[in-house]
Known about the structure:
Layout: H1 6-27, E1 31-37, H2 56-63, E2 66-72, H3 78-87, H4 121-127, E3 131-137, E4 161-165, H5 183-208, H6 216-238, H7 240-244, E5 247-249, E6 252-255, H8 263-277, E7 283-288, H9 309-331, E8 338-344, E9 353-354, E10 358-359, H10 377-380, E11 381-387, E12 396-403, H11 407-414, H12 430-433, E13 444-449, E14 452-458, E15 467-474, E16 497-507, H13 526-541, H14 570-573, E17 584-585, E18 588-589
Parallel strand pairs: 1-7, 1-8, 2-12, 3-4, 3-7
Antiparallel strand pairs: 2-11, 4-5, 5-6, 8-11, 9-10, 13-14, 14-15, 15-16, 17-18
Helix pairs in contact: 2-9, 5-6, 8-9
Amino acid sequence: MRSPQLAPLLLSLLLAAGSDVSGEEVDRKPNFLLLMVDDLGIGDVGCYGNDTIRTPNIDRLASEGVKLTQHIAAAPLCTPSRAAFMTGRYAVRSGMASTGRVQVLLFLGGSGGLPPNETTFAKRLQQQGYTTGLVGKWHLGVNCERRGDHCHHPNQHGFSYFYGLPFTLFNDCIPEEQSDILTDLQHTLRNMTIVLGVGLLTLVFARVCGLVEVRLWLLALLFLLGILAAAVWYMPFKLLSTWNCIIMRNQEVIEQPMAVETLPQRLLREAQNFVKRNADRPFLLFFSLAHIHTPLFENPAFAGKSRHGRYGDNIEEVDWIIGQMTETVDSLGLANNTLMYFTSDHGGHIEDSDSIIGQKGGWNSIYKGGKAMGGWEGGIRVPGIFRWPGRLTAGRVVNEPTSLMDLYPTLKYLAKDTQPDRLLDGYNIMPLLEGKVERSEHEFMFHYCGVYLNAVRWHPPGSNSIFKVHLFTPNFSPPGAGGCYDTKVCLCHGEHVTYHNPPLLYDLYRDPSESRPLNPDTEPRYAEIFEQIAKAVEKHQSTLPSKQASDDTHAHTSTDSHGVQNQMTWEKILWRPWLQPCCGTFPFCNCKEDMMHV
């Protein structure tokens, strides 16, 4: 028989246990769902001023959360921007910025990529007990020295689960599209192969007919040169869809080449399933969409629905995907404990279009320039939306400068990671998002075009002004145009840029479209602005891995005194067969994802 005195004791123990459980729920670390679109222009979204493309789901995130109006990418191109986003540091610190023509990784069979000793926000959160996942685009390298070492792979950078594109979506993934990788080099190699072949046949014919004496060693040499030229042209370039257009699950290639038409649905399914699998534990999911990088998708469910052709259809499909992810979070009861973040890796690609599809790239609103155009606002000002019901005030708008690099320290803070870290260029912006402070900690921001310091902005204390100086600007083609239409991607060096002495100066508060350069007559603080920016640049450059020697044109870096090696050299970018990810026996790489076991 139970003693009556035990009842109160049991009751108190049960109440205490219940209170501990509820305490765990209250103290549980938040989830993070990061949504990044590829090449999205800030003017493509309704809540940022677009009234002709329907984006109700993205607009809903903004109305239920905080919208940033001066959210800045650290670079106007995929690879350096994403490296900075992942690490909270300018890409030049990790060697992920280019000194020359090639500004992004071009081959999965190259050896360049995010260095293994770099630290990403995923790695920090993984150490705090988070389940971490990346679904979608990576574009930060795979292998270093041999196929399968996976030194740059997402699994080695803190993501416990990866499904998606280790490279990116690009034209070569669809046979009907024209190649967009080193096309001039492809043409040169092809023509060289043709010339050598024709020359060899001509000499053989002449020798057989007795028209001229041709030594056999010369014929053999021409034959070998022709075979070599054909191999150098055909193997890397004609098989690009096999080499670059693949899908991996963790470190296994599961589809090669990938079926592009079903890619959006598969990425969405994987992202939703990751959230569902980890609903009862703290998780970080980085959903890196394949949209809206070219080639554009042709989903019958969205085809012809927008007022802006296939590009508009793709934006509306993006919005639907965002809505599906929001619904997944909300239906699982995770909304109040999940920080959702929406952005783009950089601005829209304004030069990309053709006579059949029309415009293929984005609209950057009133801002000048776009993708790959240095520090012009159109290439680096991106959407930035944070939604966290119960924690962030719905409908709040923040007009202070913020950066994609701010995600790293912000996530660390929210995960209660207090361990020492390296020097960061981003700041924890939770106080700004919550309205606890009014000013951004970004008094200065530095804008890079490759490894070259291209522009600097200064937000003086106690002022609404945001001054920006351009040290040099890309040369648009044709002259006077709004972009580099001849090459489709602006370059950062040599004859491709124009240096300005004095630098161009704008006040983005009064002139956000950068259309009216300031001078001593129109800006009373003209001399002070250049003085303050010069001091900031000197301080910033003293923190870089190595001081960059300057000449009349550019600074140049390769390997610094701290061992930070440039990952964007020709040596590291070009294709190597022994580094190529492959399912099956190389070079006969071919497989399709088994949809029955998904």
